[in-house]
Amino acid sequence: MMRAWILPMLLVLSGSVVAAGQLLKGSTGAAIALLLVFLLLAGVNSPLIFPRSIGAVEAQRRSAVDGRPVVFWRPGCVYCLRLRIRLGRSARRLHWVDIWRDADGAAAVRAANDGNETVPTVVVAGRPHVNPDPAWVREQLSPPA
Questions:
Q1: Which pLDDT tens digit goes with each residue over 48-59?
Q2: pTM to 2 decimals?
């Protein structure tokens, strides 16, 4: 769990240091602006922006029942963030597995990607797709009931 928060914590720490430097120079406005930018980056790269992750075994079980795709992702991945943002509200209709929190999820991604933990890996009907186009992923969702 802690690994998912390393990048956001580093961004907050770095932003604090940079903002403190600007404050020491007497530039309060720049300090506030830089701190806000770093806080925004930390928030975007935190696990908070993604739907709640579940384990790979549970995601695969749910996918078999409802037919929804499973998305394997990790915090700090810009391609995962791109997919999440471009899916918008539709992202809640997928099953999300954080491979840094779930060893079975990481193993499933390695099995699908020749031993690499390449994310996002989206599994649709049992077939893995690496870094698919968000529009294609949206098409794979069944219409809401």
A1: 676 778 999 999
A2: 0.69
